[in-house]
Each structure stands twice: as C-alpha cells, then as structure tokens.
Design a protein that fits this description.
single chain; 398 residues; alpha/beta; Rossmann fold; Dehydroquinate synthase-like, alpha domain; 6-stranded parallel β-sheet; two-stranded antiparallel sheet; 15 helices; 53% helix
C-alpha cells in the first residue's frame, strides 16, 4: 500500500440483543437532558417511551422531536434544533432509521457551531466546536449511519440531497440492538438490507478502499448475502436479524472510510426529485451499475460472486458474472421494483435526467467508481435503470 489510510469509527459501539437498555447509562455519562429525535412509528411501537424510561432511571431528562416523516430535510434540522434550544438539551439521541440518525447528526453539529447545514457542504465550512454528544440507535439493518461521519440532508429550496462528510458528524456512541429491527415490515427489511449490501459492495469496489475497509466490507457482504432472505421471509428470525444488524454496522464502518461510488451518486438525485426512499433507490440501481462497472473490477466482483456461490470452481470472469446475476436474482426475490414499477412518470423522469446526471457528478461519489462514467453515460444509465428488468419476468411493482 503506497498511501496512508485511516479507519474512523464511533468512540463507543454497543452491539447485541437487549443492548437498547444501555442507553440510560451511556446518556448519563454524556449529558443531563436529551432530545430524542425519532418518528411516529417508533412512538406507536412504544420504543420512545421505553427509551425515556431507561433515561429516567439514570436521572437523564428528555424531550422528543417526532417530526421525521421522510428522508431528512433542512426543515427537520431547524425544527429539532429549535427544540434543543428551547429545552436546554445538552445531548442528542436518535432512535429510528437512517433519516432520524442523519437529522440528529446535523442538529448535533449546528447546535454547537451555529449557522445552517448547507454551509457545510463540500467542506466549505468545517465544524470548529465539538458537536453535542450524540447516541445513535438504529432500528433497521440498512443505512449503517450509526457508524459513519456522513449525513445526507435534502435542501428543500433546490431539491438537492446534500452529502456532508466531516468527523464532527460521527456519533459519539452507537447502540445496535437487533431486537429493534423485528418490527420492520418486509418491504423495509428488503430495501434497507439491499442498501446495506450496496454500502459493502461499493466500499469494496471504491478507489479509496484499503485493507481495513476490505476486511469489514467482505465480512458485511457475507453476513448480508447469507441472511437477508431469512430476515425478509421471517421478521422474527432473530439469528437472521442479528447477522443483518452486524452486517449493516460493518458496511457502515467500511463505506464511511472507503466512500461510496456510482450507486449512491445516482441514487441521491432520484430521492431528492422523486422522493424514493434511499434504500429502495439504491436497490433499483445496483444491478445495472454492477453490469456497467464489471469490466473494470473483475477480480473484486469475483470475490462477491464466490460469496453467493462458494463451492463453484470458476474463473474470475465467471465469478464476476455470478455476482451480477445473483444480485439481480436477490432483487427479484425481495420484490424490489424498478423505477417505473415504483410509479415514477416516464416523461417527468426523462425531463429530469440531465439535472440528475449533473447532480450525481457534482456529489463526487461517481469518481470513486472502478469505471467512472461520462455525463452521457450517466444519462444513459438513468434511462436504462428506469425500466430495468432484474429477471426474465417484469420487475414487481411497489
């Protein structure tokens, strides 16, 4: 290796069934009053009340922001920030999926540094003050956001997803309790699971990968490939849920340090303009982009192919083909729709292709891809993905 490499993770990671109950102890070491950033689903499931009870037992007061309803936006950040100030909170706890965690990351930095979240895009502004302590508690096995220094926030004024990466956005602590993901419905398990697989694959294929991220990415791919179907078919299968939670965590650590590539670069504009949840848009794009990239990463895709079919004695090129076809088959089995099947109007989509392609390039992620596309190739890829068939049959609808 002819360059320096870094591996940055949250200072504290607690993992395992039942680890949610540790939130009180973790919080008491970091603050006196917490703002819990969550959503209505977590409220209905009783997870927020349980969190508040754990905090109360450790003499930590709390307030709750329930405003996260979609992919995170700058408006959510402003609303939650107002609650931090009004309630005198000195600690943030995110409880939910990646949207809750990403919102909390932004709030924790702005609360101590002031300004607006869009000022931090592209490193134009670097956080100089330490963020509020942030404990991230994921309830899906997908985004890995609990272990990354990245937040993605939609700018509602121009409908652009702002990807911001700075060490200050890394949570202070992560609590990964697989039991919290049991409530995820099948379609969420599918989308977040393929999202996690995308993180692992892209971290492994990225030009910024290094031996430490390779180790995490390979482990994550094995865990997810071998257990995602079981978690999808039976949400109460705790072995599958545990393996998926661990795989998602490892994939998050891998891509936070190696970066993501073309899938995420193309996915963000789709989410911003057509409000497709991040996990689904990644899943819709992954097979076609692996086909596009294959010729430039045969050996690495071969490693993935041998995870899907470990007992096949095949060449690297054959194993790379197995990887692409197996990802297609997986998307079919998990009933992932294509963009047309999701319900996106074809005319509107075609009109947006130019903007999406330019926004994707501007994000920087496509430059990490083994094969870096031109603007024209990006536009063609968007058009290919619109009605892409994962198998010989029509892709399932939403």
């Amino acid at each position: 290796m002819n360059k320096f490499a870094e591996l940055r993770t949250p200072p504290s990671i607690t993992y395992g069934p039942g680890s949610f109950k540790k939130v009180g102890v973790e919080a008491s070491q970091r603050g006196k009053k917490a703002l819990i950033i969550s959503d209505k689903v977590m409220e209905k499931l009783g997870n927020v009340d349980q969190c508040m009870s754990f905090l109360d037992k450790c003499q930590v007061k709390s307030a709750v922001y329930f405003g996260v309803e979609t992919e995170p936006t700058d408006q959510y950040v402003l609303e939650a920030l107002k609650m931090v100030m009004e309630n005198g909170c000195d600690l943030i706890i995110s409880l939910g999926g990646g949207s809750c965690i990403d919102t909390a990351k932004a709030v924790s930095v702005i609360a101590s540094n002031g300004g607006k979240i869009d000022e931090f895009v592209g490193g134009k502004r670097i956080a100089k003050q330490s963020p509020l302590q942030h404990i991230a508690i994921p309830t899906t096995a997908g985004t890995g956001s609990e272990a990354t220094d990245v937040t993605v926030i939609t700018n509602t004024s121009n409908q652009v997803k702002m990807m911001i990466k700075q060490q200050s956005f890394m949570p202070t602590a992560a609590i990964v309790d697989p039991e919290l993901s049991k409530s995820s419905p099948k379609h969420v398990t599918a989308a977040t699971g393929i999202d996690a697989l995308s993180h692992a694959i892209e971290a492994f294929l990225s030009k910024k990968s290094h031996p430490m991220t390779d180790m995490l990415a390979l482990s994550a791919m094995k865990l997810i490939v071998n257990h995602i179907r079981d978690a999808y078919e039976d949400g109460n299968n705790m072995e599958a849920r545990e393996k998926m939670a661990l795989g998602s965590l490892q994939a998050g650590m891998a891509f936070s340090n190696a970066s993501v590539c073309l899938v995420h670069g193309m996915s963000r504009p789709i989410g911003a303009l057509f409000h497709v949840p991040h996990g689904f848009s990644n899943a819709m794009l992954l097979p076609a982009i692996l086909e596009f990239s294959k010729g430039s990463c045969i050996e690495r895709l071969a490693d993935l192919g041998r995870i899907f079919m470990p007992n096949r004695n095949v060449t690297n090129e054959e194993a790379a083909n197995i990887a692409v076809e197996s990802v297609k088959e997986l998307c079919t089995d998990l009933e992932i729709p294509n963009l047309k099947g999701w319900g996106i109007d074809e005319k509107e989509f075609n009109l947006a292709v130019e903007k999406m392609a330019r926004d994707a390039i501007e994000s920087g992620s496509p430059a990490n891809n083994p094969k870096v596309p031109t603007l024209m190739e990006l536009k063609e890829l968007y058009l290919t993905c619109y009605d892409y068939q994962f198998s010989g049959e029509r892709a399932p609808t939403k």
